[in-house]
# Entry
Amino acid sequence: MLNPASYALGANRSCIRELFEYGNARAAIVGRENVYDYSLGNPSIPSPREVDDTIRAVLADTDTLLVHGYTSAIGDLATRTAIADDLNQRYDANVQPEELFIGSGAAPELVAVLHALTTPGSEILAIAPYFPEYKPFAESAGAIFKVVPPDIPNFQIDLQKLEEMLTPATSAIIINSPNNPSGVVYTRQTLAELGALLTKKGSEYGHPIYLISDEPYRELVYGGVEVPFVPTIYPNTIVCYSYSKSLSLPGERIGYVYVPSQAADSKALYASVAGAARACGHVCAPSLWQKVIARCAHLRPDLEAYDRNRKALYEGLTAMGYEMAKPDGAFYLFIKAPGGDANAFSEKAKQKDLLLVPGDGFGCPGYFRICYCVSYEMIQRSLPVFAELINE
Ligand code: PLP
# Structure
């Protein structure tokens, strides 16, 4: 017998993938330069050169069996130490290697954390707009997935609506800042108010409400905007981090979970995350990449190309009359669809080979997402098409 939920997930293709493949098919017909594909969030800046140099150095310096062998399930101590040192240089967090679990990117880390925090009837809340995979991740863990409506137009967190949706069954809230799809960075004030609310409701319910902070875009921020380190604001935070975007390594699968010792039941929580990962088939994160991160955890991306794209689009589209929240981070803009129907607008755009992702899947109808990890030249060529569309 087949599991119907698994079948549905495998058989129904994601709208983003479909658009991306449609773009490739159109490019074969009309030429790549005539397709304006803003669908997929694949980093377009190269990894820092030190990353590639380090791969070679690791292969040259280390016994092959050690490079390619299993590591401990929680990750090499050298990797966890390097990450803790890097975090401690940047934040007043006192991160210890034993609080870190090396995972294979944010997606499987989130799955493990959600399994660890779910018992029958547990509710997991996400804040719209949210990364669509949270829903299957939470539901496959057995949780009830609920979405807090968006805080339009600023895309911070509507704390009043969140408070109304909290119940004694709430196990955790997932946040993501800098945000996919809005590009918005939650302010320190937003996070402090969120922390205060969760502290108050946790003591009312007699159990902690954990905050899962999904942070693949933590370093992708522009103009000196602050991305606060959430565990220093609310102790019951679990961080799921990934190097997919910050070091442009999405195909390599490496990141970490941070379970701070100041979180409630932290030792049991850490063991539960490790146990849940084990039950999901985690053996260890890729060994070569653990060794690379042990030497590269301090590296930061060169964001100049993304920033140039961001400015060109934000300034160009705003001048035409498009409305969006200020995109301070990640590599997305989330734009209000002229006419109000994002599906109809995206369909019209598709007829002109401009590929935009409607916001419904992110829990926010009426908006569309564009991903600006694309070439600057494509942006320049696409701007007249955006102008045509808003003036039709
Ligand atoms: N969370 C968010 C918000 C994302 O945008 C992504 C990927 O696009 C992920 C998690 C998954 O990242 P990873 O490649 O590290 O699994």
Remarks:
- Residues 41, 105-107, 131, 176, 180, 214, 216, 242, 244, 250, 255 surround pyridoxal-5'-phosphate (CB under 6 Å).
- The chain has a mean pLDDT of 96.
